[in-house]
Design goal:
Layout lengths: L3 H15 L4 H14 L4 E5 L7 H6 L3 E6 L2 H10 L4 E4 L13 E6 L10 H14 E12 L14 E4 L2 E7 L2 E6 L2 E9 L3 H7 L5 E6 L13 E7 L2
Parallel strand pairs: 1-2, 1-4, 2-3, 4-5
Antiparallel strand pairs: 5-11, 6-7, 7-8, 8-9, 10-11
Bound molecules: S-adenosylmethionine.
Length: 231
């Protein structure tokens, strides 16, 4: 079992080819963010190979990318000369001044890798600290229906193409790459109750089904989008 940083170090070279969202999804997510939020300074937490940074800059945002995996950031750096890229662990504090971002995003299930409750708590506090009043944090996470509670613990099942997972505990799954069975890491399963507790210090928390319009459905959907607002 690897830490998330070790896991991504191992897959960085093939990440874009095998697992990155296609450009059409990036375009849809950028358009959604541009519709909902005024352009401003935006922090992409766990930016990976930086697929969002260029499109966000083109949409008028001023993006900063943060990731704890140097190999993923190296690809982002090759791809984008403009945006600032920061090597840091989001669970260990955010290396930025108070009130310096209008928006924080963390897409493609990135924060599922924060399996430590203390790190999640620290990140919520840090996000509030670095956000300006009127700012928001937008998280895209697997929909809880992706992890049916009636699955027998320990049995591997397909999570997404090329990736399997198995339940280890009530809120913990192990993730495995099908072509490299030795390469596994843990993820945390968020549900709305959990989120409400975790993000209780924000002023409002809204849930959306993926990056579509409409209301969140508790039993349907492959991803959910969480918007936590700071008034
Ligand atoms: C599934 S990839 C998603 C990348 C990007 N957010 C996207 O939407 O394409 C997850 C990324 O989050 C990074 N990551 C995971 N946990 C992190 C942490 N605690 N701090 C910083 N980066 C983290 C990984 O290194 C990896 O690059």
């Amino acid at each position: 079992m690897r830490s998330a940083a070790q896991f991504y170090h191992q897959v960085a070279e093939e990440y874009d080819r095998r697992w990155a969202y296609p450009a059409s999804v990036t375009a849809r997510q950028t358009a959604w963010l541009a519709r909902k939020f005024r352009p401003g300074r935006i922090l992409d937490l766990g930016c990976g190979t930086g697929r969002m940074l260029g499109p966000l800059a083109q949409a008028g945002f001023d993006p900063v990318g943060l990731d704890h995996c140097a190999a993923m950031l190296a690809t982002a750096r090759r791809r984008h000369r403009g945006p600032r890229l920061v090597l840091a662990d989001a669970g260990q504090g955010l290396p930025f001044e108070d009130h310096c971002f209008d928006l924080i995003i963390s897409l493609h299930a990135t924060l599922s890798h924060l399996t430590d409750a203390d790190e999640r708590r620290r990140l919520a506090g840090e996000a509030l600290r670095v956000l300006r009043p009127g700012g928001a944090m937008v998280l895209e996470l697997p929909h809880p229906a992706s992890f049916p509670p009636d699955q027998p613990a320990g049995a591997w099942r397909t999570f997404s193409p090329g990736i399997s997972c198995r339940r280890l505990g009530r809120r913990t799954e192990e993730l495995r790459l099908d072509h490299r069975a030795d390469l596994t890491t843990l993820i945390h399963v968020f549900d709305p109750t959990d989120l409400a507790t975790w993000l209780a210090d924000f002023d409002r928390v809204l849930l959306y089904p993926g990056f579509r319009a409409g209301r969140y459905h508790p039993h349907r959907g492959d991803t959910m989008v969480v918007c936590a607002y700071k008034d």
